[in-house]
Amino acid sequence: xxxxxxxxxxxxxxxxxxxxxxxxxxxxxxxxxxxxxxxxxxxxxxxxxxxxxxxxxxxxxxxxxxxxxxxxxxxxxxxxxxxxxxxxxxxxxxxxxxxxxxxxxxxxxxxxxxxxxxxxxxxxxxxxxxxxxxxxxxxxxxxxxxxxxxxxxxxxxxxxxxxxxxxxxxxxxxxxxxxxxxxxxxxxxxxxxxxxxxxxxxxxxxxxxxxxxxxxxxxxxxxxxxxxxx
Length: 230
Description:
By secondary structure, the protein is of the alpha/beta class. 43% of the residues lie in helices and 24% in strands.
């Protein structure tokens, strides 16, 4: 049974999320503030940490920093702040993923499964993948093309991460919209998705008109070519 640390001070979220996680077969330990979270990290080991960004007695960033000092336990941030600065800061700190409130439990459970699946693979390059001419480090939220860094917006990176969580799998437009919805809220619609697919291809593909990384599956959706650990 995988053990999840949930650090959240909203009792309603704690009750609902704890119930859902336990129904999925996870063991859940709950802490409601920064000091108690830091204390339990010294006493127990966890397979994954769900951290609220704003906590009594400090910040979720502090807890994430300590988690990463102790090892490489995956971290997912739960945050009501969806601006790029906070998102990128969390990813730069080593967070594996994030989701903004209010979130759908089904989507969060999918994110948890994806992050745990990557963690189970182990290895020194757990967070680094190569896809054609690209190198993606999901721990640092950074992308390189033939050694030159490619700078993505938070939504572009969120879209790429959605693909990375489902390598080789055909994703419908609805699935992709669900994967990036929490970054831009109601501004994300089907037309917006088309624009961001185009922008992502322009930054990542050698020939955006004949994409080899993010491929169109006519009548269904898109898929990312399978990557390998660097």
